[in-house]
């Protein structure tokens, strides 16, 4: 039986890789990668290509939205801003890229309408993440309504957020169960050769692998102990 098409927003990171593995079980994969001028743009693009090759995906779309870098307001795109090393649950970190997910979902929706995809998968996490406002469940519900109102009447596209309420440790465990190529992923906000091991994204990833009982297969610039 021919599988329905699903678009996965694949950054090349841990979360989007696991979501790709989830979507792969049921749908015909169409992978979307967006470069927006982030510090590790080259390494993330390589991760995307490696994961796409791993799953033998032919339907690929890479888009450059450098205007997000020009808009600024995020330490991911502005070299003059520092990347925070410690998570503060009461403050939205400087790594938040203003309204990024709305931009990404808009691109995915346009592509889905053209190719007839019925799902858009995104690896957003609400409970165990940086607290970005565009990673909340109510944001995705709102955007789903926008898709209904802004597309052709015969278009039926649903947003899927399968790890939205999971802990990062659970995501690692799920990735291992699904045999997702976690060794091909990249999460570091700062480095492209060896992950810094110090930025918030690295810390969340390191803790998740440690709690899940696995060593992280990517290289780090500092020594990491993998036993809890």
Molecular structure report:
- Helix 1 (14-24) packs across helix 6 and helix 6 (168-177) packs across helix 7 (200-212).
- The protein has a single domain, classed as HUPs (Rossmann fold, 3-Layer(aba) Sandwich), CATH 3.40.50.
- Helix 2 (41-54) links the parallel strand 2 and strand 3 (59-64).
- By secondary structure, it is α/β, with parallel strands linked by helices.
- It is built from seven helices and five strands.
- 36% of the residues lie in helices and 11% in strands.
- A five-stranded parallel sheet has the order 3-2-1-4-5, sandwiched between helices.
- The chain starts with a strand and ends in a 16-residue tail after the last helix.
With strands numbered from the N-terminus, the spatial order across the biggest sheet is 3-2-1-4-5
What is the helix content?
25-40%
Please give the CATH architecture: 3-Layer(aba) Sandwich
List the uncertain runs. Answer: none
Characteristic terms for this protein:
alpha/beta, 228 residues, Rossmann fold
